[in-house]
Specification:
ten-stranded parallel beta sheet; mainly beta
Length: about 325
């Protein structure tokens, strides 16, 4: 009886293992974009594969790569992403995705998305829109990208016009990237949003017609910046470089903050709205050995317990970059 039971058990285990071995296992696929044309025929099996088609036909977790170099000029509106996806370009100097000054470039409504090795440029929202280059409501990781010359446009400052380069409503990570030359008609010329981490990146020469030429935290969540450069940004109102709104929290450490400007003599380059906003900017270089509160790097209502006295030694890490590389 016992031997019969053990035999049946062994056969059962063998059959179950055989069934599992026959069950197909899903693997992430790789799709290759091989045309610069913004084709929209809903297929990558017809002899060519555009970026728009690749995003549409990709499964969750797939990776999109490129065999082409140049500029993909979007003619069919923004590219929408609602799934887990990786888009890996050949390098920001080799490939650009352009909105043609007519449309936003990427709209990420959900999913975990990684975009690397390309330039996102010339995006523009419709009137009262936000997020000129990227609108993110998912989890977005940008690595080795350039976001430039994008515009968040509005004809009414009470509605829209936030995040010239990027508006983040989800979770955003930016690393080894450059956010430059973007414009917001309201606030956050470079990046606007909540939960954001920026590492080893440059936020430069962005502009806001309202506030926060470079970075704006407009709501809950913490915007954290480290080992980065914030320079050349401007705002017609307040916060030429950085502004944290009434419920926003920004922490900047081990970074360079200098040569930012505001359009009003009684405003500051790095500001926070009290009583609930939080701005912690310890251990940064402010463009002078004397620390903050110099032209282009003045601050108010911020926590500055310590500062760095050299742009070439950031938190103990010696830099060998020439001065012109800091701009």
């Amino acid at each position: 009886m016992k031997r019969s039971y053990l035999l049946r058990l062994a056969l059962t285990v063998l059959l179950v293992s055989m069934l599992f071995s026959l069950t197909p296992v899903a693997h992430a696929a790789a799709l290759e974009v091989d045309t610069l044309v913004d084709e929209n025929d809903h297929s990558c099996a017809d002899g060519d594969c555009s970026l728009r088609d690749a995003v549409e036909v990709a499964g969750s977790g797939d990776t999109i790569t490129f065999s082409v170099k140049g500029t993909i000029a979007l003619t069919g509106g923004e590219i929408s992403i609602d799934k887990n996806l990786s888009i890996a370009g050949p390098g920001a100097k080799r490939l650009a995705i352009s909105g043609g000054n007519a449309d936003r470039v990427f709209n990420i409504s959900s999913g975990s998305v990684v975009i690397s090795g390309l330039t996102i440029r010339d995006g523009r929202t419709a009137d009262r829109g936000s997020g000129g280059g990227i609108l993110n409501d998912g989890t977005l990781n940008l690595a080795n990208v350039v976001v430039t010359a994008n515009v968040a446009y509005t004809s009414n400052a009470l509605y829209g016009g936030f995040g010239g380069g990027i508006l983040n409503h989800g979770t955003l990570t930016i690393s080894n990237s450059k956010i430059s030359g973007n414009t917001a008609y309201s606030g956050g010329g470079g990046v606007a949003g909540g939960t954001t981490t920026i590492v080893s990146s440059t936020i430069a020469n962005n502009h806001a017609n309202g506030y926060a030429g470079g970075l704006a935290n407009m709501g809950d969540g913490i915007m954290q910046v480290s080992n980065s450069t914030i320079t050349g940004n401007s705002a017609d109102g307040f916060g030429g470089a950085v502004f944290a709104t009434f419920t926003g929290s920004i922490k900047i450490v081990c970074s360079r903050i200098y040569r930012n400007t505001t359009g009003s003599p009684d405003r500051y380059d790095v500001e926070v709205a009290l009583p609930l906003g939080v701005l912690d900017v310890d251990d940064n270089w402010w463009g002078a050995r004397t620390g903050p509160n110099t032209p282009g790097a003045d601050t108010t209502n911020a926590t500055v317990n310590s500062f760095l006295t050299s742009p070439f030694t950031v938190c103990g890490v010696s830099e060998t970059l020439p001065v012109d590389r800091l701009h």
